[in-house]
Amino acid sequence: MPYNKKTHHYIDKAFIAKCEKKPILINTSRGAVAKTEDLIFALENEQIGGLCIDVYEDEPLDKGEQNSLGMYKKLVAYDNVIATSHIAGWTWEAKEKMINILVDKIDHWQKG
Description:
Elements: H1 13-18, E1 24-27, H2 36-44, E2 50-53, H3 69-76, E3 81-83, H4 92-111
Parallel strand pairs: 1-2, 2-3
Helix pairs in contact: 2-3
């Protein structure tokens, strides 16, 4: 899901309340698509079955513009939360694709 004005805090208390079943949420798009405070509320109140996340409203987490570092520590401390850093661009396939794009751009630039 792209991040824009329409998707800012798309996943919030209201969104979670509309779910018919207890969902497991996965956010690997952009951090601000999900409201951190509401994710913690949903975990505390067992409104979601779990959370998988690799993007955060603040990156780095100690940036503190949206939430405190303590809030992120609380979020990732739940047993039903899997939290990693956003590393999709660090796979061998992604690196190979970046190299190919760069080579194509250099070739295009050299040819004028």
